[in-house]
Amino acid sequence: MTQSDSPAQASDDIGEYRATLEMDHETAVEHVRSAFTDAGFGIATEFAPSAMLNEKIDAGRDPYTVIGACHPVMADRALDASAKQMGALFPCNVVVWESDPGRQVVYHISIMKAAMQTGIAPDDEAMAAIATETGALVEEAWGALETAG
What we know:
alpha+beta; single chain; 5-stranded antiparallel sheet; disordered N terminus
């Protein structure tokens, strides 16, 4: 597996991560799932909008999977810090799409940072700490994408 893009954050404002994995779609989805579970996230949901769109409207979409990862401790703290409004953005989605056969793009933004920017969560020290700690966990998972699954 090679990674075309750096696993480092592309935009600190929204905690954006993007990587390209040289492997088939199902292998990439399993690799991303494993990286996030190894970093302490649970997989709350997983679905393939491409499959649904191809079935329902014959969209002809290439493989596209949304992996809904959730770190229970961070989610619990975020719910308290945001007067329960943070749940509107749960889970933390990691998206995997096929850009070319054998090449998958993996994409994620920080829902904690997005929540602070939109006012769903307060832009205060408690929420900033949650965003920083969650970011470190995502960075750990992202670092694991560099190794073959």
